[in-house]
Write a structure and sequence with these properties.
InterPro entries: HTH-type_LysR_regulators, LysR_HTH_N, LysR_subst-bd, WH-like_DNA-bd_sf, WH_DNA-bd_sf. The protein is an alpha/beta fold. The protein contains 11 helices and 12 strands.
Length: 294
């Protein structure tokens, strides 16, 4: 028994006779009759009784009609599901993101994608850039949203807001410190106890070294929120990228941009080169690209 035979049988039931069914199916009547005989032989039952003015279903034929309709409906729905899956209408997108992007960037992408593809689900992992790079490399997540600098050679990527200036590094501080200018120079930070993100230690040290300054690093941390919390105690000044600072800075603390191109960063969406991506992940990446191009 195959799907074609079921379709043939149901066409006969719907039309009430072989002649009309053959015309509807665009085949000759003898081959149609032959297929029904083969179906009955395989099932070991008589499905219909041929009469001069049409056909009459046997009890077995009535059962087979109901089951045949269910089978064809299941086949059609399965084809649609697979088609939707291949076009990215179903599936799961797994995303790793730094905390600031998880608050500021990712929600708008998920909202818009959900409106287009309501049957797609998401899994989101948060962490610092190093953790997210590891998750992407191990295939735990399809896409990572991280901050530069890092080695991009293993990844395909989209630079967020590529047509806008890079994000500066900022200092966040209490009233214990005052600066004369709106933007702070590295020389202004000489001898001030600094609380920095370990992730940016190398570029921070290189920037100070270019000005022949040895910075006073009080503490190194791995979470922007903790770094700002320590600065809030008044024991030092936090140095962090501006986007997370805008999200996590307490209202009673001050923030100034650091005037140094060497300390600028960008948000980047990444995925591994030369790996299989499902249609749903490709569609999500297309949505991100469309935002970057506007």
């Amino acid at each position: 028994m195959d799907i074609r035979q079921i379709r043939y049988f149901l066409a006969i039931v719907q039309e009430g006779q072989f002649t009309k069914a053959a015309s509807k199916l665009n085949i000759a009547q003898p081959p149609l009759s032959q297929q029904i005989k083969l179906l009955e032989k395989e099932l070991g039952v008589e499905l219909l009784i041929r009469k001069a003015k049409g056909i009459e279903l046997t009890e077995a034929g009535q059962v087979f009609t109901a089951r045949g309709e269910q089978i064809l409906n299941l086949v059609d729905s399965t084809k649609k599901e697979l088609s939707d899956l291949s076009r990215g209408h179903h599936g799961t997108v797994t995303i790793g993101t730094v905390s600031s992007s998880g608050v500021s960037i990712l929600p708008k992408y998920i909202k818009e994608f959900h409106e287009r593809y309501p049957d797609v689900t998401f899994q989101v992992f948060e962490g610092n850039t190093i953790k997210i790079l590891d998750l992407v490399s191990k295939g735990v997540v399809n896409i990572g949203i991280v901050r530069t600098p890092f080695n991009l050679s293993n990844y395909e990527y989209i630079v967020q807001a590529s047509n806008k200036p890079n994000d500066p590094m900022v200092v966040i501080y209490t009233d214990n410190w005052q600066f004369r200018n709106e933007k702070v120079g590295l020389a202004d930070l000489k001898d001030i106890p600094l609380i920095i993100h370990r992730r940016y230690e190398e570029i921070i040290m290189n920037a100070f070294s270019k000005h022949n300054i040895i910075p006073n690093i009080l503490c190194k941390g791995e979470d922007v929120r903790s770094i700002i919390a320590w600065a809030e105690l008044g024991i030092g000044i936090a140095m962090v990228p501006k986007p997370p600072a805008n999200i996590f800075k307490p209202k009673d603390m001050k923030m100034s941009e650091i005037n140094s191109k060497m300390l600028e960063t960008k948000t980047v969406v990444i995925w591994l080169k030369n790996i299989y991506l499902s249609s749903v992940v490709k569609n999500f990446i297309r949505l991100i690209r469309s935002h970057d191009s506007t």
